[in-house]
Amino acid sequence: MALEFKGVSKSFNLDTGQELTAVRDINFKVEKGEFVSVVGPSGCGKSTILSMTAGLYQPTTGEVRVSGELVTKPNPHVGFMLQKDLLLPWRTIIKNVEFGLESRGVPRAQRRERAMAELERCHLAGFENHYPYQLSGGMRQRAALARTLAIDPDIILLDEPFSALDAQTKLLIQNSFAETIMEAGITTLLITHDLSEAVIMSDRVLVLSERPGTVMCEMPIDLPDRAHPLKRRQLPEVHQHAAEIFTLLRLDQRAA
Ligand SMILES: Nc1ncnc2c1ncn2[C@@H]1O[C@H](COP(=O)(O)OP(=O)(O)OP(=O)(O)O)[C@@H](O)[C@H]1O
């Protein structure tokens, strides 16, 4: 099992002295190589779930396990990627990809080789000596993915990695991420507000309730072409799944 949440709740003590329960009684499992998306209303605790997986926060009750091991501190086997690429502007792309390897003490020649392989896998060969400002938003996100994969994590956490991209770039980068992730065979947890994105990219979608968030529904996405969301997008089932999630989240009632 790549990831397991067992009876997890998380409360924060606010400065006002009040306690805020972000998530409650979260239970789910993610198999090795599975791609799972998490959707839910704003503030329902999606990022809190990622932070607990990475070991940045500890659950108030319950347990989180990555590759069977209890997460009790920041976990070096978890790769985290955010909406903003967070590439270091003063470093070339390859030096950015090498960053995590450097901090793990990987020798220079090995670092270079690993980083080049990841850049190739993320379709960025030829751009290794460019600086982040010389790349488009989509390319920067691909570089950030290369950096995340370079540390050979057990699982990667993607927190809305496509939300700052324009609509067309988004489709292309979703496709490129899906291909790379499938090829790497890596377990992935994606947070998104885009319901269609969740359906076209995932094996399964977890739908959370309003805060305190809990898993309302686990929706399996039994559709072909997980590595090609552009193709999947054409399937009528995608719209049916997205509509079901829309209803679960009662988005129509909220708009009214
Ligand atoms: N460190 C913290 N201290 C206090 N409250 C926090 C902390 N981190 C998160 N929260 C609160 O926990 C709740 C869940 O936050 P979280 O960011 O996990 O939600 P989210 O579903 O990712 O939200 P969004 O979709 O808006 O990004 C929010 O009410 C937030 O204010």
UniProtKB/TrEMBL annotation:
Record key words, sorted: ATP-binding, Nucleotide-binding, Transport
Q: Which GO terms describe its molecular function?
A: ATP binding
Under the heading CDD domains, the entry gives: ABC_NrtD_SsuB_transporters
Q: Where is the signal peptide?
A: none
InterPro entries per UniProt: AAA+_ATPase, ABC_transporter-like_ATP-bd, ABC_transporter-like_CS, ABC_transporter_ATP-bind, P-loop_NTPase
- One short Pfam family name for this protein? ABC_tran
Q: Which residues form the ABC transporter domain?
A: 3-235
Family (UniProt): Belongs to the ABC transporter superfamily.
State the PANTHER family in the record: ALIPHATIC SULFONATES IMPORT ATP-BINDING PROTEIN SSUB, TAURINE IMPORT ATP-BINDING PROTEIN-RELATED
Protein name per Swiss-Prot or TrEMBL: ABC transporter ATP-binding protein
The organism that produces this protein has a lineage beginning with: Bacteria, Pseudomonadati, Pseudomonadota, Alphaproteobacteria, Rhodobacterales
